[in-house]
Amino acid sequence: MEVFRNIKVLSLEQATVLPYLTYRLAMDGCRVIRLEHPVYGDPNRLVGEPFLEGEDRMYSYFMAINSGKEAVTLNLGEPRGQELLRRLIEQLDVDVFATNQLPRNYSKLGIDYERLKGIKKDLIWLGITGFGPASNEAAYDPILQARGGLMELTGEQDGTPEVEGVPLPDMGTSEHGYGLIMKALFERAITGEGSRIDLSMFQSTTSWLTVPVTMTKTFGKKISRRGNTHEFFAPVSVYPTKDGYVYIAVGNDKQFQAMAAISEFAALNREEYKKNAGRIADVANLNSVISDVTVKMTTDDLLKTMNSIGVAASKINTIAEVTEDPLVSKRLLKARDHKSGCELTLAPPPYHTAYLKEKGNELSFPPRFGEHNESILGKELGLTREELATLKADGII
User: Fold this and answer.
1) Who contacts 254 (Cβ-Cβ below 8 Å, separation ≥6)?
2) Which of 28, 141, 170, 337 is catalytic?
3) Which of 41, 79, 151, 284 is the most exposed place for a label (fewest CB within 10 A)?
4) What is the pLDDT of residue 52?
5) Residue 364, strand partner residues
6) How far, rounded to the nearest angstrom, does the alpha carbon of residue 69 sit from its chain's CA centroid?
7) pLDDT for 325-341, tens place per residue?
8) What is the average per-residue pLDDT within 118-146?
9) Contact 48, 2 (CB under 8 A)
10) Do the strands 124-129 and 195-200 form a parallel or antiparallel pair, or are they unpaired?
11) pLDDT value at residue 2
């Protein structure tokens, strides 16, 4: 939508949680300018493998969630850096300022809400922290998975706790932050008022524990990891085939009856299995009987059989296979570097925005370190080349 092109976001960001949030905003067409320290920058720029030969701070891990942005270096620990921040907010008419710095650094860097509100009273301010604005405890995604109960729910029943394959505390907090910014923009459009948003990654993480919390606190039931099976439905698990694995999820008794009516699965046609509770009570034997059948079938044959009776099933795809899925391949995003000719393939967006449609699913290439210092600080703020050179020599940019 045209409205998002008028939204300007200034983000003092690093790692994953905030960069993914601003990446989502860039997909909407918002103008996103990421701020980085002129010496240290975003550590994720140096994670993975070098992507562009001969170029520092453009490593593969950084590439995934930073397309569609601009980049400026700014030392906010210095008064001149804070003055430039003030000018950026004023002269660019910034709508959203976001940071995932520790709260103890807010005042020192001149990014606390009250100070920035004094520059632009309708500013939307977002601070993402690990455990809330009163805590300065360091927080990385696996730590939040551990403390937030996700690792207790992930892994084999008799095995050790494990981290999830995607960083849900990071990505989930990003999505919550995205929604809160949209809410704040709506409120500002109605009232003309800006707002302060403090978003805790821990609070975001534990909000996903809907069933586990209710079952634990209300019904006194211990909820823990169960491998590939489900706590409340059976059969639900991964089953071997002649040439791989298939995940089958039977959602109700009617679906199970349809499965048991197939000749190959006749051994399932037992009185104690007619109700889900009976199947849960004997889930190990139940899955063993099913595996004895599926291992004699090809993946394609098993999928066709399950689909014919309306039972949900899927091959366990590799990431490479996922990218070739017809529902995914046409929605993959691209980012081309016109300087080197390199092209990035990026994950599909959660929905196809009007901006992405207009751009043909292509975003601008992830910005180099300080790439837009001259265009933004020079051309838009009006600093001369001599002033920029002095600021660089003095470690301000």
Assistant:
1) none
2) 170
3) 284
4) 83
5) 336
6) 17
7) 999 999 999 999 998 99
8) 97
9) no
10) parallel
11) 75
Neighbour-count burial of 271, counting CB atoms closer than 10 A to its CB (0-12 exposed, 13-18 middle, 19+ buried): exposed
Residue that the structure tokens 């520059």 belong to: 119
- Phi then psi dihedrals of residue 189, to 5 deg: -65, -30
- Lookup: tokens for 152: 């207790």
Q: Where are the domains of the chain?
A: 2-207+328-393, 236-316
Structure tokens at 333: 């995003």
**Domain 236-316 is classified in which CATH homologous superfamily?**
formyl-coa transferase, domain 3 (3.30.1540.10)
Looking at residue 68, what is its pLDDT?
Answer: 98
The pair of three-digit structure tokens given for residue 97, joined into one six-digit string? 């300022």
- Long-range pairs for 115-121: beta carbons < 8 A, 24 or more residues apart: 116/89, 117/194, 117/196, 119/86, 119/89, 119/90, 120/89, 120/90, 120/93, 120/94, 120/194, 121/194
CB of 310 within 8 A of CB of 258?
yes
From first CA to last CA, the distance across the chain in angstroms is 34
Q: Could you identify the residue written with the tokens 């000749």?
A: 263
Whether the predicted pLDDT of 1 surpasses 70? no
170 is annotated as an active-site residue: yes
Region 2-207+328-393: CATH code:
3.40.50.10540
The string of pLDDT tens digits covering residues 7-41 is 999 999 999 999 999 999 999 999 999 999 999 99
CB 311 within 8 A of CB 233: no
Query: Cis ω on the peptide bond leading into residue 235 (within 30° of 0)?
Result: yes
